[in-house]
Amino acid sequence: MAKQRWKPGNMLYPVPAVMVTCQRPGEKPNIITVAWAGTVCSDPAMVSISIRKERYSYGIIRDTRAFVINLTTKRLAWAADFCGVRSGRDVDKFAETGLDPCASQTVCCPGIAQSPVNIECCVVDIQSLGSHDLFLAEVKSVSVEETLLDEAGTLQLDHSGLVVYSHGIYHELGRPVGTFGFSVKKRAKNTISANGRSASCKCRRSGSSNLRK
Fold this sequence. Notes:
Blueprint: E1 15-16, E2 18-22, E3 30-34, E4 37-42, E5 45-52, H1 56-64, E6 66-70, H2 77-85, H3 93-97, E7 101-102, E8 111-112, E9 117-128, E10 132-144, E11 163-166, E12 169-172, H4 199-212
Antiparallel strand pairs: 1-11, 2-3, 2-6, 4-5, 5-10, 6-9, 7-8, 9-10, 11-12
């Protein structure tokens, strides 16, 4: 398969399109949409976000050492885009988008009530990388929408309509293609197809038929 060689660039797609909330004491809370966010450690739970120094939220997070990552869904896509192209210096993003702040348990800034998951974070390190600074943070608390929990208390996050960002376009997550570890699970010796016949036997018959052709 032929390929073109391009100059180095950020082509790691798709990425999460999350709304990050922050607030200085006594000031209005702000929202910045971040596509460069990720998990970096599981124990302790740690994440990272990267922000340009000139962004309004940069100084707030640098000074308060706290932020909340709010996952974005299909119905929040418009708000996420708005918060990514407008500056908190000029507008009150909560007021403009109709989003509601919700109190956090461990940090000074609120989360977004309409988001299915709010991840409260405390900054432990800031690394200057060039165009962006990386904020390395420890997760202090997580809040999840109760309607997404099944009877066993398992989070059904795939039912929330999560949105990702890929090369300038927002996408809702679609049809699953597998679950974690499915590549190494043992297959059943004999599976039943929709017509009640053995799927494994059907495959063997098909193979025999092909050999006779």
